Amino acid sequence: MIKQSLNGEDMQKSLVSLAWVFVAILGAICLGVLALHKGESINTLWLVVASACIYSIGYRFYSHFIAYKVLKLDDSRATPACVRNDGKDFVPTDKAITFGHHFAAIAGAGPLVGPILAAQMGYLPSILWILIGSVLGGCVHDFVVLFASIRRDGKSLGEMIKLEMGQFVGMIASLGILGIMLIIIAILAMVVVKALAHSPWGFFTIAMTIPIAILMGLYMRFFRPHKILEVSVIGFILLIIAIYAGKYVSLDPKLASIFTFEASSLAWMIMGYGFVASILPVWFLLAPRDYLSTFLKIGVIGVLVVAIIFVAPPLQIPKITPFVDGSGPVFAGSVFPFLFITVACGTISGFHALISSGTTPKMLAKESDARLVGYGSMVMESVVALMALVCAGILHPGLYFAINSPEVSIGKDIADAASVISSWGFNISAEEIREMTKNIGESSILSRTGGAPTFAIGLAMIVYHILGDPSVMAFWYHFAILFEALFILTAVDAGTRTARFMIQDLLGNVYKPLGDLSSYKAGIFATLLCVAGWGYFLYQGTIDPKGGIYTLWPLFGVSNQMLAGMALLLVTVVLFKMGRFKGAMISALPAVLILSITFYSGILKVVPKSDNSVLNNVSHVAQMQIIKEKMATTTDEKALKTLQKSFFNHAIDAILCVFFMLVALLVLIVSVRICSNAYFKNKIYPPLAETPYIKAS
Predict the structure, then answer these.
(1) In the predicted model, what is the mean pLDDT of the chain?
(2) What is the 3-state secondary structure (H, E, C) of 605-663?
(3) If we measure between CA atoms, which residue out of 393, 405, 406, 470 comes closest to residue 438?
(4) pLDDT computed for residue 75 by the predictor
(5) Which of 272, 640, 664, 681 lies at a 20 to 30 A Cα distance from 94?
(6) Tally of helices (H runs) and strands (E runs) in the chain
(7) pLDDT tops 70 at residue 554
(8) pLDDT score recorded for residue 682
(9) Rounded (10°) angle between helices 167-196 and 520-543
(10) Does 1 map to a domain?
(11) Torsion from C-alpha of 52, 57, 63, 65, nearest 10 degrees
(12) Domain count across the chain
């Protein structure tokens, strides 16, 4: 009997192994077809199947290897959420809700914007980087940083660098990280402001998500604890009602006037929201709102995947375009290194390290949850990035460039734009652009940069292919825009809370009571400083279209990836100190790749003017030199002021770029020294800062 059952088990194992071999072969075939295809268009099903195979293999095998062979996750060890359970920041939370929070916090604008911009170089470079880069780099990054934080009492990234690499390095790194964090939050908030300005439908729906989330939080806390499915259904129904009600609010002149706001007023509201959301207990608003947003985003992306399988639209954007040399209108820079910088959050993002060492480690109920929350959330974000790329790729290339090229390149007139784009080799008529504009219910689609409009049009196109009625396109276009704004706002509140922890860590070095995370007074003071920091850039961006946030936008990609490199270096140092030298390669190799890319791109951003027009467009120093030459010959007072402002903006960009590179270089040098001492001399200094073992109850 025993022998028979063993044979049955062996048979089952063999069948499972055979199934995974089949998945691997299928994924390789589909990826090969995508890479080698030579026709004008290719069916998106090849991409869907390839990505499903690669992600499932990555999660099943690679994340399991990292979890149990390298990190050696231990559920008998109490997490910071259990040890310090204060009902405010440290709250043991169900892994589905923690997954929802983490995914909502990391998947803001990045996975949509980056891949859509990168589509100007063709679909193949982005697909390869998103698929391979995320499985071996981005997912690993989120997972290992989360592990490092839960083993250090939920400490922030800067604080962990200070503990593991020394006081001085930690202080400098913390300042650099905080600067990057404030830039990121301001950019995210600006996207929301742009989406909701003069939009009563959008504002009403977004506003209604707050009482819905509070209701969900109270329901799970006091009435039906752990009934996640139940509260999800309630939240989803209420959200759909809010979206539909928003349509009727926008049609009623009285109600529409109540819910219509200028960009500057919205900026103040978002600052107020960010402040309140980050000091309230995490279970009250943040976690349920994130979970609600996640439910919606995963739902929409899931429906999109099913729709793509059902419709099977062809990818119309070429495999590789002539713009790989960096001459493209959408963004400046050649395929290496700037494609890797542009895709950003869709593959790997330093911002995720701030969430993995911010709010999430304070919510994790047991160590094994880190695998789903850290690695799994990033897999999901990578799927969002691929869907964004598909939404850009299924559009006529001419239409894609009409939406994403700046006004300077194509002009304001539809006929002029069609003529310019056709001259690039992507033939499109003015009538085709007009028809799409009419179908989605907009006044213009020219130069609607930022990613969200392209994603929304792609989604509307897929729905139109299913239903065959062009009248549905307008609703689904606006639905997609709203859904994105909702999601980005969740990243603003999680980001503010995380930045508050970082500020408290820094202030605690100056005056110890300010570093006390359990103190409401210290929390409120740090939150005020944080909101004032990112709120300044946000407000400047709303009152001055050329200043404020736009000054810092070019830096986002480089600084974000540098942050990812520093986070991976920290984990490498930790693993070397633990004596897990071979295992440390899971973080060391991606760190080397990311830092090589970012240092190279950072240097290109500060090189002087040359004969290469592509490099001149990329470099802030070259732009300063070009502007200085123009200023010498300009007599018009207004034009001179604009040039002076532009010169100042590029100067700030150049200074911050050099500062961020110096911070990353300092962390790299210290990391190499600590790792070499640990490997060659068996010398561990500073000592490993892991918190003592406390048995889980």
Answers:
(1) 86
(2) CCCCCCCCHHHHHHCHHHHHHHHHHHHHHCCCHHHHHHHHHHHHHHHHHHHHHHHHHHH
(3) 470
(4) 95
(5) 272
(6) 31, 2
(7) no
(8) 93
(9) 50
(10) no
(11) 180
(12) 1
How far is residue 21's CA from residue 18's CA, in Å, rounded to a whole number?
5
At 81, the pLDDT band (50, 70, 90 cuts) reads very high
The neighbouring-strand residues paired with 695 are 77
CA atoms within 13 A on the CB side of 366: 12
Percent of the chain predicted with pLDDT > 90: 37
Domain presence at residue 391 = yes
DSSP assignments along 565-576, one per residue? HHHHHHHHHHHH
What predicted TM-score, i.e. pTM, was given to this entire model? 0.87
Q: Residue 369 in contact with residue 94, Cβ under 8 Å?
A: no
Q: How many other C-beta atoms lie within 10 A of the C-beta of residue 685?
A: 12
Residue 693 lies in a domain: no
Nearest to 297 by CA among 46, 34, 15, 101: 101
Strand partners, 611: none
Give the model's pLDDT for residue 191: 74
666 is written with which tokens?
């300092």
Query: What are the C-alpha distances in Å from 225 to residues 230, 281, 361, 616?
Result: 10, 16, 21, 58
Give Rg (Cα) of the chain.
Answer: 25
pLDDT tops 90 at residue 581: yes
Domain assignment present for 467: yes
Outline where 374-429 has alpha helix (H): 377-393, 397-404, 407-410, 414-423
* Strand positions, DSSP E, 25-75: 42-43
Token pair for 431: 């009538």
Q: How many CB atoms lie within 10 A of CB 425?
A: 11
At 121, which amino acid appears? M
- Cβ contact 275:527 at 8 Å: yes
Residue 655's alpha-carbon distances to 170, 341, 644, 659, in angstroms, are 21, 19, 17, 6
Who contacts 50 (Cβ-Cβ below 8 Å, separation ≥6)?
27, 30, 31, 34, 131
* pLDDT 10s digits, 333-357: 788 888 888 888 889 999 899 889 9
Assign residue 595 the CATH number of its domain: 1.10.4160
Helix, strand, coil: what percent of the chain each, to 5? 75, 0, 25
Residues 595 and 582: beta-carbon distance below 8 Å: no
**In which domain, by residue range, is 512 found?**
6-197+261-406+447-680
Q: Are 523 and 279 in contact (CB under 8 A)?
A: yes
Contacts 24+ apart (CB under 8 A), 159-164: 159/502, 159/505, 160/357, 160/570, 160/689, 161/566, 161/570, 161/667, 163/686, 163/689, 164/570, 164/573, 164/574, 164/577, 164/674, 164/686, 164/688, 164/689
pLDDT classification of 306: cutoffs 50, 70, 90: confident
Token code pair at residue 564: 């990812």
Which of 199-213, 407-421, 520-534 has maximum average pLDDT? 520-534
> Is the pLDDT at 478 greater than 80, yes or no?
no
Phi, psi of 695 (to 5 degrees): -70, 135
